[in-house]
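Example record used in the benchmark description.
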Amino acid sequence: MDDDNQIHVPPSFMAVYTDTRGRLTEKANGVRARYELCEDLAGHLVEHAQTLYHVQAPSETEILQRIHAGLCTAESGVAVAEATWIVTRLAELLVWQCPVLVPPQPESAANAARPPQAG
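Model output (structure tokens):
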């Protein structure tokens, strides 16, 4: 991303849109726009996470995992890899330890793994 745009997209976000050969999988302008959106969202989530921590008093890990689970839904408007980046960035902004972030399993796979209930 060496064009004239002033926005620097960090390598951690570039990795979201880079294939195994190190090539971008989307156009540079699109990656830059997604980065701006994800960075803004992480910044906006700081106050929300702090409020949850002080009001509900769950652990930092639980708050970050809950936010990640919410961002991994189709309704959030971000991809799962972007959700992971956003929560990792949120942890950096809050100066919290970022837990391992595991995307929720698709509903069909989760249902197939459950044993049938006797009834």
